[in-house]
Amino acid sequence: MSNSYNEEQKKLTRDSISQALILLAKNKEYNKISVSEVANKAGVSRMAFYRNYDSLEDVVKCQIREINNTYRNSLTEEDVDNFNLTRVYFETLRQEQDFFITIFKSTSAILILSELVEFLESFSEKLVCNIECSPKYRSYNIKFLAGGLFNVIRSWCNGGMIESADEMALLICERISSHIVGVSS
Fold this sequence. Notes:
Blueprint: H1 2-27, H2 35-42, H3 46-52, H4 56-74, H5 82-95, H6 97-105, H7 110-124, E1 127-129, H8 135-158, H9 165-172, E2 180-183
Antiparallel strand pairs: 1-2
Helix pairs in contact: 1-2, 1-4, 1-6, 4-5, 4-7, 5-9, 7-8
């Protein structure tokens, strides 16, 4: 019981810190926000902040990882073609619209790209491809894909995420590694 309570408290603290950072970043340049300001806005101590995160960048990276895990966990057997993989991804991003729009307007947007590369490298191990490629080719392909996807997401966020997830999937699904034929379990 105590362990479950501690995990719940830790999640509440982390969520509060993440939300506080986004609220502050809406009105202040990201690189001018301090840990003390975030902790104060979140209603936690600096010690609680540092028990959960190493830096403000760590807050952003952890939030992105959580969103990517939500995406990965939401995929079903029906989501095995490029269109559905893309549509579900954009649906997941739309659920975190406030976070992404704020981060893309800040100087920390590059964190999204680095986390996207890391996520795609991990996720690509689950993809079933009909073309064999060397590890070097796979690495370049992932970085190429991540850069393109990053810029599409940035443009979508900067435009207010007006297009639906279906529209976004239609716009780019044929550009996503045409050799992907599914996701393994």
